[in-house]
Design a protein that fits this description.
One of its GO terms (molecular function) is RNA binding. Pfam families: KH_KhpA-B. The chain is built from four helices and five strands, in the order H-E-E-H-E-E-H-H-E. By secondary structure, it is α+β, with helices and mostly antiparallel strands. The strands form two sheets. A three-stranded mixed sheet has the order 3-4-5. The chain has a single domain (about 5-105), classed as K homology (KH) domain (GMP Synthetase, Chain A, domain 3, 2-Layer Sandwich), CATH 3.30.300.
């Protein structure tokens, strides 16, 4: 079942003391790393409809490939890579909570 976190009211999205986005699925709290990056990327770019994320999930590591419009590439990378670094830091905090490892790759 596909679930889009952007359909939830904001008060249902924040997970108390964590900086992760989550939702209730079958009564259990599940942190959605893909949705977290999607929400951040769409907030940064001029063409949010062109934001795509491919999630490659392994046993321990999840790779998220972020693709944005060519004109928006600089916005998600940021000056000296600071925006991309910040997104990766938030993603890693979320992954640590899940006892997983996550890698964010920004692809052209």
């Amino acid at each position: 079942v596909e679930f889009c976190i952007s359909q939830l009211p904001i008060e249902d999205v924040m997970c108390g003391d964590t900086l992760a986005l989550c939702c209730e699925i079958t009564g259990k709290r599940r942190i959605m790393m893909k949705e977290l990056i999607l929400v951040m990327a769409k907030a940064l770019v001029d063409k949010p409809d062109e934001v795509e994320i491919r999630e490659i999930e392994g046993d321990v590591t999840t790779i998220l490939e972020l693709k944005v419009a060519k004109d928006d590439l600089g916005k998600v990378i940021g000056k000296q890579g600071k925006t991309a670094h910040a997104m990766r830091s938030i993603l890693n905090a979320t992954a640590t909570k899940l006892k997983k490892r996550a890698v964010l790759e920004i692809v052209e």
